[in-house]
Amino acid sequence: MITVEGLTHYYGERRAIEDIRFQISANEIVGFLGLNGAGKSTTLRILAGLLVPSAGSITIDGVDLVSAGSSARARIGYLPEDPPLYREMTVREFVAYCGELKGLDRATVQSRLDGVLKIAQLTHVQHRVIQELSHGYRKRCGIAQAIIHKPKLVILDEPISGLDPRQIVEMRQVIRDLAKDCTVLISSHILGEISETCDRILVLAGGKIVAQGTEAELASRAGSAAGARLTLVVRGTAAAIDAGLAAGGAVVKSDKHEEVGGIWRVHVALANDDRETLVAALVGAGVGIRKLVEDESELEQIFLGLTQGASA
Amino acid sequence: MKGILLVARRDFWAYINTVWGWAILALALLLDGLFFNVFGLTASAQYSADVLDQFVFFTSGITLAAAVLITMRLFAEERQTGTIVLLDSSPLSEGQIVFGKYLSGMAFLSLFAVATAYMPALIFVNGKVSMEQIAVGYLGILLMGSAGVAIGTWASSISRNQLLAAVISTVVSVFFVTCWMLARLLDPPFKAIISYVAFFDKQLQPFQEGRIDTQGVFFFVSITFAFLLLANRSLIARRWE
Q1: Can you give the pTM of this predicted structure?
Q2: Has the ipTM of the complex gone over 0.90?
């Protein structure tokens, strides 16, 4: 539904992004990850129609964003990190105004208004002046203005930054509700949030997409490059465990601590995923294996692994 | 047209709902009243037409100054607060946004013009002027105000903050106001060119005297159009930065 092809942008002589390509299906929630200066903001500004790219194309629901201009912008909802709000207006006035600004007639705005305020969980503050609202409610106002015109694509830049834990949980629900009607692209520095909310992740580094896929796919990709990380619970002496690890072959790093008498928890990093050899070596050294689990790769590790080369 | 009115409506209400808008209006009316009192209501006898001439002269000058203060926020404030994103990401064209902003400035400036109506009305107490002459005078005031609002709209469109916008539009407006003095120092053909663009000495004079001068109308409309076009181009250019 959203297709980005060969997106490139220069600020003067400086290249901000180069040959960015991806596709997003309808009703998908996609996370956009990148370090500062990776070209994330430039890409989002182009996708929101604020910036014309130096090269490349963006098609949203069959309409080319660059050539169609205003009609394509009507299909996009955009919430920057700092929500753009006319603070002297009440919530209801503001959202209605934004609906008309996006090209809806007044009757359509009124018919959609209550539903949108409900999705953004703003119904109970709809008659309050935005100036008086907390940061969390202002974020929700920003979301409401981004979806009032029923866009095909909603772009949320750091939607949970500055929110308290309860507001974060509520915002997650708001974002999931959004995806029932449209495609959502979220940019965030909070990797756990991307992991929690998104169906798929795009990783941007050095102005290029360096990886894309589900978290599991990215983990597998990062894992195959970095080897395997295992946690073992074993029975034996410290000397026997050390001997087994030394004979294990691909052990890059290990760390152990005794839990109860003779039972040890051992964390092992392998250069390659040759866990069978390690187990055989430990058993050969007289160590009993009680449990072996693969460490779940945290998104931070995956992200750093994937972006390390591109950022260098 | 709906988009233009939408932008104009919000900006107009932003003037009405802030102290800043009313402060500009009050200051402009105070200065205008003072000038009228000093130059219009003199102890010595004056022709009613001359009093009206004086009124149109300084009211148009104050209108120009008010235009600078009114328009400096149009784009610069939206850029400072980040709300410019709402306009930039909307389906409205740059031209619609610029014209909507211009209309809001003109609407607020028209409030000022209406509020000055008591001054020409006072001429009727001890004198006699035609309503047509007053209407032509106000046409001149609004035409100059229109040029001032357009200059301010352009200045605000290229500025990151309101102060810079005010400085730029002041410099440009002062040039148009004072270039009749510059013209006196120049030789032909520059003398003719510079004196032609002088707001007061050349273009406003017929309106002060109660004459509709098509050349003056064309001049002020052209200035308005040119600066709105420049503002439009500056908004488009920002998408291509």
Answers
A1: 0.79
A2: no
